[in-house]
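S.,

Sequence below, as promised.
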Amino acid sequence: MSFSSKVKEELYKQIGQARHCQIAELGAIIGFCGRLKKAGDNKYDFKIYTENVIVARKCFTLLRKAFNIDIVIRSTQGNKKVHSYILQIENDNEQLRILQALKVVDEQGRMTLKTGLVNSLIIPGICCKRAFIRGAFLAAGSISDPEKFYHLEIVCPSKEKAVQLRDIMNHFAVDAKVIERKKHFVVYVKEGTRIVDTLNIMEAPISLMELENLRIVKEMRNSVNRRVNCETANINKTVSAAVKQIEDIRYIQETAGLEKLPANLQETAQLRLENPEATLKELGELMTPIVGKSGINHRLRKISDFAERMREQRRSLE
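The prediction came back faster than expected:
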């Protein structure tokens, strides 16, 4: 099972205790999955369509808890052998009662919600906003495998719906953003800590802890890799510098002889030849008296400068 499916399984089991929270979550799901059209005076053809059995089950539960009504669920199979679920309230009065509770239609049966996902009147409090985000994610959301990268998104059919959902999510400072993708608008959260916050908002503590544990392991692994890469780079740099130093010393030795160097540089050159893998600090500690790392580095630079002058002189003669 994917991480996204695990999150939805957990959210399915999370039911708000208060009726207003149940209505808020139901409002989010219907905002994505509901189909509504006028069918006469105070009558509407109202159905809920979804390909996710978890969403169908959650709708069934919320409708029973919030409105205590019977719902018909039909399952169909399309050309691609994908099951679809259709939830229908057959009683016209019950349909109207639900739509009025969701503030989709008014007391006279006139539609009030023209754009956006939901009437703001059904999500006045923090608990209702949490439930609403939970319903939106269940209906149209997904989250990537955190072992690979961090990305949570909810796909909206219109810009107005995406903007409203983004603003509701950003009420909790998760830094959600909207991007257009083909014919849809996607509300997304990318940073790992923000996704953890979003799981907390939706009340998915088990998934939150799993993600946090994965984040800790990844951060430790990345930290170790950075240190290893840094140390490897330093070793390579040290080895390259030592190879160049030995080349310069051997050039002087074979061309003019090390005795052409001052006594302190002769000693340094000889120690470098005898200890090709030693660090600057280790070379300095082999000397009597001990010479610091910067002192050894200064001497080796002088030796390299001497070798370079000899090469230039040789080139000029040629």
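The longest strand covers residues 43-50.

Coffee later?
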